Amino acid sequence: MLKKTIRTILSFVVVVVLWQTACTLAHTNETLFPSPYKVLQAFIQLCTTGLPGSTSSVILPLHIETSLIRFAIGYFSSAISAILLGLLLGSFPRVFTFINPILQIIRPIAPVAFMPFIVFWFGIGDVPAIVIIFIAGFFPILLSVVSAVQNVDKIYYKIADSFGVNKVKTLFCIIFPAIFTQISNALRLALGTSWIFLVSGEMVGSQSGLGFLIMDTKNCMRFDSLLATMLTIGVIGFILDGFLRIAEKLIRTKFGFGA
Fold it and tell me: What is the pTM assigned to this prediction?
């Protein structure tokens, strides 16, 4: 664990050194290609006083808080609903065969393509971003769970029948633990996708959050602040993925799921 942490830190250090070297050797305008130090200064400014020249006085930590709340609502609602529906559809192959063509048509459509309808129906604010996050996370989880259920070894069903276990208990007490590895992989994939589209949703339908700040820094022509916000988004996504890994290991250890 310690070695992995050291390697991660070293990789970041190498990137920063190469970045600073490129800025020094290229002699570029720091307004267009900010150095790491310039970006750090912008980050501190965003955290303390906000973006200079912006119509909003909200500081970066509050934008982060707003985005995380929206993300939590959209991601967890999509995860819970997709897992439950996936377990049911996977248990009824004929029903899924009927619904699958519709899902396959809707699934490739980028969530932001729904934005005009979402804004028209719900207005601007929190809801459009939450709906975009929900759509981005729902389909990867749903289809992964359905596929996992349909590929479960039939021996699990035979054992459940021999002990007289009803279908609901079989689904949630036997099948769910058996496919936990596939579910956790789908959750991690959906987390990355949902975090990406959170920013897209906030760019259009919100007046706060990290996506809004991306557009705000662009409009103010503050590329140092833009890079600081982009790096913040990347770091938070990295941390969220780490939390999900830890949660998966804890569940595996405590309940033995996916063993």
Answer: 0.87
